[in-house]
C-alpha cells in the first residue's frame, strides 16, 4: 500500500492531467506499491474534489464486465467508477473532441433506480425489482495516464470514465427481456461494432448486483435516483474530431452524438 499523502498526490496528478488534457506517467510506475485499495481511495479523493468544485454525484459506471477484458487486465471481477452530473449529456449532443485525450465509445444500458439497493447478497431479481427504468446509453471512456496500464491505473483513473450519452426509449425492466437488447454502433455511417446485452455477465443487471454487494463491504449502498451504467456489450470504438456516431438499439430507439 501507499501512504495517504501519496494517495492525495496521485489524485491531484490525475485531476491536473484531466484539466491539462495531458496524460501522466502510470501511477503504478510512480508508486510501485500501489494496490487496488489505494486505487479506489484515489478515485474517491477525485470524486470528492469534483463535488467540492460544484459537481453532483449521480451514479456509477461498471467496467471489465466481460471475461476477455478481465483476463487482459489480470482481474477476476469487474471494476467501478463514479458519474457526476456534468458527465451526462443527451442524445444529439455535440462534444468537443479536444476535451479528451484518446476518446472511445462503448454501447451500454443504464439502469435508473427507483428504490435503494442494499447489499450484500443482491441478485439480478433484486436489481430488476428496484429499477425504475432502463435506457440506452453510450459511455465515453478516456485515459488520463500513459499506456500500457495496470488495473490499479485504470481504477484510480475513475475506471476510464469520461462522459456518457443517454437517449432512445425509456423502458421498465419487466417490459422486455433486458438480456437480449441488441445494438449496432456506426461511425460516420459505417457500422463498426454490434452486440447483445447478455454479453454483460450473462445479464446486464448482474453487474449492478455485483456493485451493490461490493459497496456493502465498505459501508455504502446504491441509492434511489442513481444512474448506473451496467457495462459495455461491444468493443470500444475510437472517435476523433469530425466524427458522427449513431447507436441503433432497435425497438429501444437510437442515440446520436457528434465530436467536433
Automatic annotation (TrEMBL):
The Fumarylacetoacetase-like C-terminal domain, residue ranges: 69-255
Protein name: 2-oxo-hepta-3-ene-1,7-dioic acid hydratase
Lyase found in the keyword field: yes
Lineage of source species: Bacteria, Bacillati, Actinomycetota, Actinomycetes, Kitasatosporales
Key word Lyase present: yes
Keywords: Lyase
Alphabetized InterPro entries for the sequence: Fumarylacetoacetase-like_C (IPR011234), Fumarylacetoacetase_C_sf (IPR036663), Hydratase-Decarb/MhpD_sf (IPR050772)
Secretion signal, residue range per the UniProt entry: none
GO MF annotations in UniProt: 2-oxopent-4-enoate hydratase activity
GO cellular component, one term: cytoplasm
Pfam families for the chain: FAA_hydrolase
